[in-house]
Amino acid sequence: MPNSCPKCNSPHAYPMDALWACPECGHEWNPDDIATENAGPIIKDANGNPLQDGDTVVVLKNLPVKGASHPIKAGTKVKNIRLTDGDHNIDCKIDGFGAMALKSEFVKKA
Fold first, then answer.
1. For a designed S-S bond to 22, which of 5, 62, 75, 91 qualifies (C-beta 3.0 to 4.6 A apart)?
2. Strand, helix or coil at 8?
3. pTM of the complete model
4. What is the DSSP string of 44-65?
């Protein structure tokens, strides 16, 4: 349970029915709403499965790489991904290419 006010960070918050209240600033909040806000966006693969840090994914189509003589082939397995914000929302390392940023719409969860 939350032990400090999200508005003023007072450590004296207390439960009041389904809400929590702060005696110092008068702020009231639902702890479930705070947890949902802090969760961030859910990143999904091409099939709609949610992805998490550390997952293994498979590339669905050949992906051209700037400066490389050949693309990342469809079926390439990528282990231990990291999710990030932005257009290319997966950071990973691919054998033969090194560190890469991929779009989640071109991978599926393995």
1. 5
2. coil
3. 0.65
4. B-TTSPBP-TT--EEE-S-B--
